[in-house]
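Form 7-S
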Amino acid sequence: MYALYSAVLGVGLLAYLPAFLVRRRRAGYGRHLGQRLGRIGEGLPPEPRGWIHAVSVGESAVAVPLVEGIRRRWPELSIVVSTITPTGARIVAERLAGRAVHRYFPVDLPGPVRRALDAARPRFFIAIETELWPNFLRTLAARRIPAMIANGRISDRSFRRYHRVRWLMRRVLADVSVFAMQSEEDARRIVALGAPPERVVVTGNLKSDLLPEVSDDAAWRQRLGLGPGNRLWIAGSTHRGEEALALDAFVHAKARCPGLALLLAPRHPERADEVEELIRARGLVAVRRSRLPRDSARGAIVILDTVGELAQLYALAEVVFVGGSLVPIGGHNMLEPAMRGKPVLFGPHTSNFREGAELLQMSGGGLVVKDGDELASELARLLDDGDLASRMGRAAREAFADRQGAVSATLDLIARHLWPGSPGGPPR
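Output:
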């Protein structure tokens, strides 16, 4: 089975090679090709070491409070955090400087995996949000290195895909020591795929424990060209098809609220050219965040083409729309604006964040908009009714504040299953 998987993966990597070379030039992929091939030894921190894997930006942000909790509880442990994308690497470098060392995750083939583990010699491995790499997990198990899935979730699409190969999943999941899942539904799904029920625990969502970052709101407002009479609406993590709807809603709302400003944050910053064309096609002015303060932002729609700033900028908004939800993507992180006390709008496609969407609706902190017309009308209503917007913002923050504690629960599982006998854990 594993030989077949490795062969198929190898063929897939060869087929992907031309696209990889293009992305290497454009976005920094492949600049650390040696690390992807398992050569990660140079400059590693001293042993004992733990290894946390976070694929990209969202998982890297989630890893921050977990790494901080591990370092407080087990100061003798060094931490290696791996990612696959350069944007994820940037988050690790910026937010975990001095507390963790970054490496790129090896390609899941026997040679790269063996070389990486020979160099890192981790005492345990933690994958954020159900990252399942069969060869890597099998090699960990062969070396008696315990592995954990933290903040685990199984989306509708992933569940359907995994369920088709559940005979394979059962063997892969057997190599994981403990599953810390976000919700009861995620726990049910991982068990249905073959995880031993006694290893599955519901800990909640680590994102609920992400504290709002302290920001200089006045400096940000100046940088974004926001004057005293400006009110900001943010459309975050948008996908193709949503920016046009957001722009139409903005034009509609601005007719009633002349001081309204918009920050558009496409989920994939490399789409900035496309988004800028949409803005200019409507006769509006656009400016990219990466060009501020060199270019003037006053009166312009700001395109957020940088990584790692959206969560902080939510603090400036009066209303937030979270994308990936008006198109069938499954939605994106709603906790970040909710924890900053903002009323949250989102579309009907929220399968990736079903629990968060339901919580926002039940608490009164969020509203579902089924199309562009509803987005425009609800945006205008919230801008007109400041009391309603404030009540929704408070409800959103309180709803998620009650769900905090996932980091502590995850640390307890680490002490019990991954690092027993340590000063911060129970006796062996």
